DNA sequence: TCAAGCTTGATGCAATTGCATCTATCGTCT
DNA sequence: AGACGATAGATGCAATTGCATCAAGCTTGA
């Protein structure tokens, strides 16, 4: 496990699998959403975070931390979400620069509809392919690849 | 492991980890290439396939099968690669529609330079985090998520 | 208090992606 | 041969992304 310039064959294979499978799965899920006439996955990620945050909402920079999207990406995504009435932008009292984003009723509804499709994709693409123990093992191993690493 | 509309918590967690970690790792690798003044990962994928194919080259539709890129994406990528002198487009004898793409000497050289950086990323981001056995396990588990599945 | 630097979020512009469609050629069937 | 559908690859146009930069507000420190 020492740092080397040239990766082991096992590392190369794991990397290749990871890249290929994740892309394939993501595209499948994306396709299912599109087929249902629903917005793309990125919207779900944001709506999910906002739904979990509740009425207090979140600041855009918090969304950036949680979703890993780029700043300009979030900025424009929020513009679209607001234009569609899925979120509200509220001024924040103690910081004139900032704003608080709160999910709107329509946003919760769209998120619900998206989850019906997205959740089904997850169940079919992942839940149906591996046992609970195997899924837990995948999570644990992938967790150690994060930065910072975590094994939970 | 029956098909359900609502995925298990284990499936959701594994999915989330997979999406998040793969994106994070990809971005790290991409960033390393950019920092080295080298082209993006997509170029590597194509050059890699072409290098493996050897002098015979590959048809664009074969590249699509191997890399999972969209047709228009490959078409434009090849235009750029050719413009940079990394590949050659050759007419193919028995099919007037098609062409054969062959990697050029400069393409091999760029690929070599990219691998120096990319390989290091893989070694650091993956090879240094998990043992060989664990990496093999990751590959096997992810392999079962492919379509079609494979466990090798 | 006010200048200098940092943080938050937006935006102009170029490059890329996605979608739909197009052209050209091929293969097949009559 | 000729028509019809399928396949290979390119491309116009709209949407999105990435990069760099900007404007506005905050914080600190002399």
From TrEMBL, chains A, B:
<dbReference type="Pfam" id="PF12802">
    <property type="entry name" value="MarR_2"/>
</dbReference>
<dbReference type="InterPro" id="IPR036388">
    <property type="entry name" value="WH-like_DNA-bd_sf"/>
</dbReference>
<dbReference type="GO" id="GO:0003700">
    <property type="term" value="F:DNA-binding transcription factor activity"/>
</dbReference>
<dbReference type="InterPro" id="IPR000835">
    <property type="entry name" value="HTH_MarR-typ"/>
</dbReference>
<protein>
    <submittedName>
        <fullName>Regulatory protein MarR</fullName>
    </submittedName>
</protein>
<dbReference type="InterPro" id="IPR036390">
    <property type="entry name" value="WH_DNA-bd_sf"/>
</dbReference>
<dbReference type="InterPro" id="IPR039422">
    <property type="entry name" value="MarR/SlyA-like"/>
</dbReference>
<dbReference type="GO" id="GO:0006950">
    <property type="term" value="P:response to stress"/>
</dbReference>
<feature type="domain" description="HTH marR-type">
    <location>
        <begin position="11"/>
        <end position="147"/>
    </location>
</feature>
